[in-house]
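Slide 14.
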Amino acid sequence: MKLVTFIEDGAEKIGVLEDDAVRDVSSAAPSMIAFVESGSLAAVRAALSSAPRKPLAGAKLAAPIRPGKVLCSGINYKAHAEENPNAKMPAEPFFFAKLPNAVIGPDIPVRCPPRTTQLDYEVEFAVVIGRRLSRAAESDVMSAIFGYTLLNDISARDVQFKDNQITLGKNFDGFAPIGPCIATADNFGDPNRVSLKTRLNGRTLQDGNTSDWLFPLQRLLSFLSEVITLEPGDIVTTGTPAGVGFFQKPQVFMKAGDVVEIEADGIGVLRTPIGD
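Slide 15: predicted structure.
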């Protein structure tokens, strides 16, 4: 099942994607976070029987969820580590945070900040937490996943790499597009075998697979929960494959007028225009 948040008459509603339509299941819960916290898909399935269909082309999608925390894994693909001459293969998972001001939905323009000339993209396969995790064993984490989505870890590289300002370089307004949906874990398949792509103005620049992870999902979530309690609705990303703009030869950075698309099997395409 693919769940979305869409805007109608100024209000955010929950929907289920069905081919070229959205089924309004807002009667199941007042918001996506409330629905995730409830821990059951039964209410959505019950609402589907009488849910009105709306053309997807006319639906304005928002970020599918407003997460309490967004924690991103860095250097978690073997090929990405290999393309970075300064990267060291980490002995343990590495994480940084994306802040609430950075979260936006599909097709929302991201302003190119005047402080950067090195605006970069990163396709990230992301986990939506469905149950509280604290000091969880690896064997316990998969059952705590509600679903999966995409996050574009947009970065200002010249800010990020100057004095190691990773928090500032990755948290300009709009630097965390999320979506287009949450694919629920119950019928998603194996998250360790997911194809990921990034296209900039139609040109494919990242083409990887989660099978290239340094640390599998169970290890990432268990390790993280030893330090930070993960709550329903939190998002944890899993790193990016090779092909980011900073390590292209020659380098490729986004600019006003560009359109970046990230894609994952089973989730779909998250499109983001770059504005002035």
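Speaker note: The chain has two domains: 2-62, 70-275.
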